[in-house]
Design brief:
The complex is a heterodimer of chains A (about 240) and B (about 140). Chain A has helices at about 5-40, 55-80, 85-115, 125-145, 150-160, 165-175, 195-230. Chain A is mainly alpha-helical. Chain A has one domain. In chain A, helix 1 (about 5-40) runs antiparallel to helix 7. The longest helix of chain A has about 35 residues, at about 195-230. Chain A starts with 6 loop residues before the first helix and ends in a 6-residue tail after the last helix. The mean pLDDT of chain A is about 90. With about 140 residues, chain B is α+β, with helices and mostly antiparallel strands. Chain B has helices spanning about 5-30, 30-35, 40-45, 130-140, and strands at about 55-60, 70, 75-80, 85-90, 100-110, 115-125. Chain B has a five-stranded mixed barrel with strand order 1-3-4-6-5. Chain B is flat. The mean pLDDT of chain B is about 85. The chains are: A mainly alpha (about 240), B alpha+beta (about 140). The interface of A and B includes residues 41, 53, 161 and 184 of A.
């Protein structure tokens, strides 16, 4: 079991998974885009701007999920000092930041035609900006602090403190009056999105998840190579 | 596996989490009025300390058959189904502004029943459906 998460052994496995994702990625991407842009109907109110949702919602989910996993890995890393976990969370962080920013930008593009404004300082949008700031702090702590142990510790604490923001983002639309609408897909699985629109949404989510897996594995591989180069036998 | 060092770190994290959550809770609680993006007509009716010169936002639903468009201004009623507020606005409204839909108006209160807006934002709900389905639903209601 512990042999499996040994970076030297996992190297070849990563290579295989990357090749597999590469082979199916573009096929699924084309299917998802066909559904999202051509086959799915426009919305009865928003018209074609509903299509922005197919990128916005999955990006926001991935932004939240990435930070949650970084925080959970950080908790384990902080307690048990498994350096490998830190390599993983370091590889997730740029992806999470990118998708959080993508969610904010696509949300802004959607807000102009629907709400009539690019930006509103309501609870949901503000808490998403706070999430992006936490990502930036996490990445900067790793980049700027020279001593590895110290960087490790400080970035872990940043991630753990940032964990408190996650439920705030999720429930901001229920706790306070916001301009942002409440979630369409509830935690109990019910949804107020018509099935003809739910399908492209889920397909796009799958595509973006595959993309994340691809970039994450490539980045993790680079981190391992970086360590191998320093001639450290075990981490 | 649970050495003393590990136990120490766990209790440190526990303490950290508890203190962060309490701090955030109190910050949000003291800010609770500012976090609300808009007030409902009922909240305005009940509040004692309204500053009439300050810009505020009011939100709710546009009451059915209340939109009155003249050359100079557009007038409508915001309702939260308990209380109502008359809003007057000069300018263009967003595409999604219509009867029975959510709306947020930014501007100043004249008195507790009359509001002059500088800006109107449409609030979208969480429902997404194709236009044909909407037509069928309308027919079923009629």
């Amino acid at each position: 079991m512990f042999d499996l998460i040994n970076p030297s052994k996992i190297f070849y496995l990563i290579e295989k998974i990357i090749n597999f994702i590469n082979s199916i990625f573009f096929i699924i991407l084309i299917i998802a885009l066909t559904f999202a842009l051509i086959l799915s109907p426009p919305d009865y109110l928003q018209g074609d701007s509903v299509r922005i949702m197919y990128v916005h919602v999955p990006s926001a989910w991935i932004g939240l999920a990435s930070f949650t996993s970084i925080a959970l890995l950080s908790i384990l890393n902080f307690i048990f000092k498994i350096k490998n976990l830190h390599l993983i969370s370091k590889s997730i962080a740029p992806l999470g930041l990118m998708f959080t920013c993508l969610a904010i930008i696509t949300g802004s593009l959607w807000g102009q035609p629907t709400w009539g404004t690019w930006w509103a300082w309501d609870a949901r949008i503000t808490s998403m900006v706070v999430l992006a700031i936490f990502y930036i702090l996490f990445i900067l702590a790793n980049k700027l602090i020279e001593q590895k142990d110290k960087a490790n510790k400080i970035s872990n604490i940043i991630a753990i403190v940032g964990l408190a923001n996650i439920p705030i983002i999720k429930f901001s639309v229920d706790w306070w009056n916001t301009l942002h609408q409440p979630s369409s897909i509830k935690l109990d699985g019910t949804s107020s999105i018509h099935s003809s629109m739910l399908l492209p949404l889920m397909l796009m989510f799958l595509v973006l998840l595959l993309y994340c897996a691809l970039i994450l594995l490539m980045k993790y591989k680079t981190e391992i190579i970086r360590i191998k180069k320093k001639n450290i036998k075990r981490i | 596996m649970l050495t003393n060092k590990v136990k120490k770190r766990i209790s440190f994290l526990g303490l950290l989490l508890v203190s962060v959550v309490t701090a955030v809770f109190f910050i949000l609680k003291s800010l609770s009025n500012n976090i609300l993006y808009f007030k409902s007509p009922t909240e305005i009716k009940l509040s004692q300390d309204i500053v009439y010169t300050k810009k505020i936002r009011v939100g709710g639903m546009v009451k059915k058959n209340s939109i009155d468009i003249s050359d100079k201004e557009i007038k409508f009623i915001i309702t939260d189904l308990n209380n109502e507020l008359v809003v007057s606005f000069k300018g263009t409204v967003p595409n999604l502004f219509s009867e029975g839909k959510g709306v947020v108006a930014e501007g100043r209160l004249q008195d507790k029943d009359f509001f002059i807006a500088d800006r109107i934002l449409a609030k979208h709900d969480e429902k997404y459906m194709p236009p044909e389905l909407k037509d069928i639903m309308k027919k079923n209601v009629e």
